[in-house]
Each structure stands twice: as C-alpha cells, then as structure tokens.
Amino acid sequence: MKFPAFEMERMQSVWEHKVKYDLSESGVEPLTLEEAARDVKELLKTKLGYAEGVGLESTRTFVSEFHWKSTAENVVITTGTSEANFLTLLALVNAGDEVVVVMPNYMQVHGVAQGLGARVREVWLREERGWTIDLEALTAAVNAKTKVICVCTPNNPTGQVLSSREVDEICRVAARHGAWILADEVYRGAEREGSESASFAGRGERIVVTGGLSKAYGLPGLRVGWVVAPVETAQAVLKLKDYSTIAPSSVSEVLADIALARRPKLLERTRFLVNERWPALEDWASGRSRELHWTPPVAGAICFFSYRYPIDSMPLVDRLIRDYSTMIVPGVHFKAERHLRIGFGGPSHILHAGLAALDRLLATIGD
Hints:
Blueprint: H1 7-15, E1 21-22, H2 33-36, H3 40-43, H4 57-65, E2 75-78, H5 80-92, E3 98-103, H6 108-115, E4 119-124, H7 135-141, E5 146-152, H8 164-177, E6 180-184, E7 207-212, E8 225-228, H9 231-241, H10 250-261, H11 263-286, E9 292-294, E10 302-307, H12 313-324, E11 326-327, E12 329-330, E13 339-343, H13 348-365
Parallel strand pairs: 1-11, 3-4, 3-5, 5-6, 6-7
Antiparallel strand pairs: 2-8, 7-8, 9-10, 10-13, 12-13
Helix pairs in contact: 4-10, 5-6, 5-9, 11-13, 12-13
C-alpha cells in the first residue's frame, strides 16, 4: 500500500499559516469558539475523556435528518470528511478493482484508490458545457470491474452541482453494474441561491454519502465529518476507525451537536458570506476577461478559472507564494493544467489584498 503525494494538501500545510493572504481555502470565514458555543462557561465543564467512537446518538440523528431514508444507525461520525472518504474506500476497495473518479475532484479519493491498488478511470466534467457531467462518458467507463464511482457534488474545484436528474442517472449507471457510489457532499448547504442541491442519499442500496462541518458550516477546526451508509457498511467503516482515530474529540463532539441543532442558521450565514464576497472576485475577473475564463460557482466559496498566461499553474502559484505572500491553488493539483482555484470565502480584506497581489504578479507575466 503506497499512496501518491497529495500535492495540494502538502502545499497548504506548508504555507497556509505563513502567507499573508490565503485564497487557497475553499470554505468560508470560520466561526469563533464564542460563536460556536451556546455558553462558553458551560463548555468549560466538558470532561476531556474519550468520546463515543461512533459519535453521539443525538449528532448522528441530526445528520440522518438531512439524508433521505437514513437513521442514526446509518451514520458514523469521523474526524473530518477526509477520514470519512478514506475509511469508506478502505472498506470497499481491494487491489485490482476499478474506481471511476468524476474529475476534476478533491484528489484524496484519486490518491487513496491508487494507494489501495485499484485502477483509476477518470471521467471529466465538460468545461465547455459549464462543467457538467458527461453521462455518455460515464456510462462507457463503468463496467463489471467497477467497484466505486467517486463523485463530489457540489463540486470541488468548480463550484458546480449535479441536478436531481443527473444524480438519478449516475445511480442507474452504478446499479446496472453493481458498483458503489461514494458521494462527497461536504459543500452541500453552501449553494448561492438558497435551496440545497440534490443529494445521493437514499437513492440506492450501494450509496455512501460523506460530509462534514468544514465547508458549509464554517467550522473546519472542529474536524468533524460523517459517513452515511447502509448499516453493514457503516459498521465496516466503524471497525476500520478503530485503527485510525478511534473516537472524535470530546470538545468537538459537543460543539458539533450544537452546530447541527442550529443547522439552518449556520447555512444561512454561509450563503450570506458567499453571496456577499463573490461579486468582489467576479468584478476582479471581469477586468481580465481576455485572459481568464470561468463558470460562476453555484455553490461554495471557490471558482475555477482557466487562463491564457504563458506560464504553467505551479510556477505561477510558487511565485505568488514566495514573492507576494499570497496562495491560491494551481490547476495541476487537480490534473487540470492552466487553471487556478481561487477561494473567496475568507475575510474581505484578505480577499481584496490577495487579488491585488495576484494582479501585481500577472502584470509581470503579460500575455
């Protein structure tokens, strides 16, 4: 078992606390502890013992309520959505299996599948159609050897979503060959227009949905995620979790329960921040419309730009980090060269200063 380097996460881990202007983050400005807790003094009474491995029943019930046909038995609380994805693939995939990854995608699933010895087949969203799913290409890629289809919706890095019809069609393609679907829905709830995008939950017998509090809730520091799966699969994930993190943080467990109890308010906050800050990025991009092309994001605080500048994305971002103390994500980290992912959900002054720094760099590159 040998995993390839996760280049984006390695870059962010090295630089995110060193640069002045981090526009690589894909979530929104996080809540403070005071904002996240009902009563900070009451929180101080929390005993720092081991939390329940599977997660509090109340937390799992909250999660089940926004996943169709699910109960607390279908839910396992994990340390972030990353652990949820990792343990799910570990439970489902064996060496020699085929895993179809709908691209571009958060590259964790691609790397983990490779590390487990699977053959990865890529099916790309169609950029020329606004990053929509190519159902014909998906149908052609899935076969009797396919163990899992990995989908991220709302999508990272494009900010686009699958329609309910497209979700149903993907489910039909998977069911035709007995394949599982792993749907990373961590950005669900961060839709700009308010109504939540279609979920894979409850649409078949071999579907696992993952999510967490990092992106749509503004609580990445809690490191709380979840797996929603058939009971037998949830139990398989839980047994593997005994080898990884064992249990959630006891403090995070309490704060997660509080957050999910007021889910509508937190999602309303996220949508406000996304809609408040997207125009600043859109206005900036409009001033460079000859060099940049983009599809406005439907969900999440990220936009994926293609560009015409005569420089590859990693050298561009490396110069931006080292010379301008600003970080965005190079498209090559999504196997999409000549693209850039820019996050706009952070504090407004960081966004404006970061874009000004990017402007100064781009002025030195030219057409």
